[in-house]
Amino acid sequence: MIKVLTTLGPTSLNKKTVEGLEQRGVSLFRINLSHTNIEEVDALIDKIRSWSGVPICIDSEGAQVRNGSMVSESVKYGLNNLVSISRDKKVGNEKIISLTPASVFDQLSMGDEIRIDFNSVCLKVIKLEKDIVTCKVIHEGHVGSNKAVTINKTIHLPAITPKDEAAFRIGIDKGIENFALSFTNRADDVRAVRKIIGEKNLIAKIESIEGVLNLKEILPLVQQILIDRGDLSREVSIEKIPFLQRRIISFANKFEVPVYVATNLLESMTVNKGPTRAEANDVASTLLMGARGLVLAAETAIGKYPTESVDIINAIIREYSAWSPKLSLKKIIEGS
After folding, report:
1. Strands 201-206 and 224-228
2. Residues 6+ apart with CB under 8 A from 330
3. β pairing state of 121-128 and 178-181
4. pLDDT of 157
């Protein structure tokens, strides 16, 4: 059975939408800690449960770098401008920005390139001081709050943040059975989470080169893996992603570990009521590769058409379930 996982967010966190998603057979509701304050977790679980019996999954922030809050969601960084990275947490503007977790600051070196969000701003470190790192903008663009950051070298980060641990413990106290570890890079990351959640269901999110290369040691320790194509494409060029996805699914299937796939499945449906032909083909191809779950993120968290997105996913799953290479062209067109 193919599972459909949906991320809950501003456009879907209401009774009508949650009930609609449940009626459409959604398998798991995802709480994304990267966009949820720890103070909200307890009440959020209660709210979702008051509307639906669909199980909840708490998804960690994990070992990732992000920028802090900004004065607006579109701060312009112009080419060759100078931008300071502050050791202390500050609200960012066109002249200053901060990064989290704080341990990143002391790992920066001269010449490091810091990319903020997808294909957006790139900063190059040109001066190091005790509490300020000065950068030059080498690729201009706009930056909003809490965007993912990639640095062109290995940055050492803990597998789980204090916020992750606190949220996981809240989840355990409230009987949550499903957890996801973002940026699972090695077996030790899984072991660190197991000390908190024990043998509860754990989805390892593979979204870095290190995670891909350590897949063999990760697979025996988790119940499922999730390929996050978005964050993975920060480290791997986009033309390689389709082939890497095929290889990861094939490899995991040999270990009988189900694979879920996320990112941009129906991205256009964040604003449009129907998908593109390329998106429909991507979803079908992902299923034909052997994926056992499909994850909607922006489509259901901030998109305009969360339930319609699940309708499209379900329609493609039905076609996939009926598919056989022996089907005649007429049978495919007419359907069952």
Report:
1. parallel
2. none
3. unpaired
4. 87
Q: Are 68 and 145 in contact (CB under 8 A)?
A: yes
Question: Confidence band (pLDDT; 50, 70, 90) for 182?
Answer: very high
> Number of C-alpha atoms within 13 angstroms, CB side, residue 183?
21
pLDDT, tens digit (0-9, with 9 covering 90-100), for 183-204: 999 999 999 999 999 999 999 9
pLDDT tens digits, one per residue of 47-66: 999 999 999 999 999 888 98
The CATH number of whichever domain residue 97 belongs to comes to: 2.40.33.10
Nearest to 119 by CA among 223, 290, 234: 234
Compute the chain's Rg from CA coordinates.
Answer: 21
Asked if residue 142 and residue 41 are part of one domain, the reply reads no
Pairing of strands 28-32, 75-77: unpaired
pTM higher than the cut 0.85: yes
Q: Which residue range forms the structural domain that includes residue 327?
A: 3-64+157-334
Helices and strands per DSSP (H, E), number in the chain: 12, 17
Q: At what angle do helices 306-322 and 15-23 cross, to 10 degrees?
A: 0
Residue 163 backbone phi and psi in degrees, to 5: -65, -45
What SS3 state is found at 276? coil
Residue 325's identity, in one-letter code, is: P
- When divided into structural domains, the chain yields a total of 2
pLDDT > 70? residue 144 = yes
| Four-point Cα dihedral 158, 162, 168, 171, nearest 10 | -170
